[in-house]
């Protein structure tokens, strides 16, 4: 595949390395001369120095034959402009934008760029995963289906502990798809399996129902006061 | 949006004609360019996000003009104003003539100072 990457910062550079290792043809378009030189030194001739939002620069990059276009600069307006031009002017089949301000996700979608990666949210979820205080962690968003795959930790004193999977009263459309119990192999839980504190469940839930799910697995008021 | 020389001058002209003007910029010192008798609102906000535009009462606006230094900011703000808030008249400055052409195809009204100025210079030379 021929992949064009806009932005040769940390994300662009390591993305390029990964794609090169997998045998893809890539080109990084980066404004900064120093960054371009560094990439030339380390990765070979894979960069083009210029503004990836300029039509002339993109034409020079051979965008007409690109299979994929990825914009990962630190400026959302640049990522939006580059992706819109790639998608709507040059008809690149796959266009993906990095989003720096989480609020911009739905703006991008409304303006025609549906495939976005929210860098801040991803880092945030990874940090939350390291800290046990957060009972619900987003693993993946299936945006076109409005579904989320989340990991739920059943804490000591959780309302869910002692209940069977079928009695959990998860929001409509949710599925407890995988159960991870200490010392046991992962398994798809039967509806009769009784949840214990310390269990972890991977669940498929409708987008926006996170609070309801948290409530199902929340700590009972008694325990909290005690 | 954008209180540079052009933005400030446009705001002054419209304000003097009695229009209700709100001007946004992310640099407070840029508002020094506004005349002392400017009756409109100067707002220290970014117009490339919805919150900043909401604070500028964009829903009540009849027109939105984006004239920051950066083409991409102007294009993004203009698209938000038009597509998300449905402002009737939206104009943005796009320096890159090729990109201006592209944004016109998206339904944005763009002005490329590069083209306009080059044309103007040519006319003057031919006189």
Strand content of chain B: 15-25%
Chains forming the largest contact: A-B, 20 and 22 residues
Number of helices of chain A: 8
State the total count of DSSP E strands of chain B: 5
How would a textbook summarize the main sheet of chain A? 6 strands, parallel
- Give the overall shape of chain A: elongated
Secondary structural class of chain B:
alpha/beta
Residue stretches of chain B low in confidence (pLDDT < 50, at least 5 long) are: none
Largest sheet: spatial strand order of chain B: 3-4-5
Beta-strand percent range of chain A:
15-25%
One letter per element, helices H and strands E, the order of chain A comes to EHEHEHEHEHEHEEEEHH
What characterizes the major β-sheet of chain B?
A: 3 strands, parallel
Separation of the first and last Cα atoms of chain A: 59 Å
Overall mean confidence score, pLDDT of chain B:
94
Count of alpha/pi helices of chain B: 5
Quote the distance from N terminus to C terminus of chain B: 36 Å
Tell me how many strands of chain A there are.
10
């Amino acid at each position: 595949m021929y992949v064009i990457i806009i932005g040769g910062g940390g994300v662009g550079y390591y993305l390029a390395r990964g794609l090169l290792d997998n045998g893809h043809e890539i080109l990084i378009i980066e404004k900064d001369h120093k960054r371009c030189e560094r990439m030339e030194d380390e990765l070979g001739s894979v960069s083009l120095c210029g503004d990836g939002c300029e039509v002339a620069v993109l034409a020079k990059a051979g965008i007409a034959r690109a299979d994929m276009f990825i914009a990962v600069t630190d400026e959302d307006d640049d990522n939006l402009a580059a992706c819109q031009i790639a998608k709507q002017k040059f008809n690149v089949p796959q266009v993906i934008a990095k989003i720096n301000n989480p609020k911009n996700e739905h703006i991008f979608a409304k303006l025609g760029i549906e495939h976005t990666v929210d860098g801040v949210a991803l880092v945030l979820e990874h940090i939350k995963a390291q800290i046990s205080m957060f009972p619900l962690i987003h693993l993946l968003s299936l945006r076109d289906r409005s579904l989320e795959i989340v990991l739920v930790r059943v804490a000591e004193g959780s309302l869910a502990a002692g209940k069977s999977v079928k009695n959990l009263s998860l929001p409509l459309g949710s599925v407890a798809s995988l159960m991870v119990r200490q010392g046991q192999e992962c398994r798809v839980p039967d509806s009769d399996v009784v949840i214990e504190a310390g269990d972890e469940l991977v669940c498929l839930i409708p987008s926006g129902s996170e609070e309801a799910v948290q409530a199902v697995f929340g700590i009972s008021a008694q325990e909290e006061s005690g | 949006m954008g209180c540079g020389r052009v933005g400030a001058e446009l705001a002054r002209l419209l304000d003097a004609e009695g229009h209700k003007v709100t001007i946004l910029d992310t640099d407070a010192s840029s508002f020094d360019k506004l005349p002392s008798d400017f009756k409109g609102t100067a707002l220290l906000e970014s117009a490339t996000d919805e919150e900043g535009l909401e604070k500028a009462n964009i829903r009540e606006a009849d027109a939105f003009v984006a004239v920051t230094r950066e083409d991409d900011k102007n294009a993004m703000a203009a698209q938000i104003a038009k597509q998300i808030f449905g402002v009737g008249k939206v104009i943005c400055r796009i320096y890159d003539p090729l990109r201006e052409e592209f944004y016109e195809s998206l339904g944005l009204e763009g002005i490329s100072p590069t083209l306009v100025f080059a044309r103007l210079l040519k006319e003057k030379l031919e006189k």
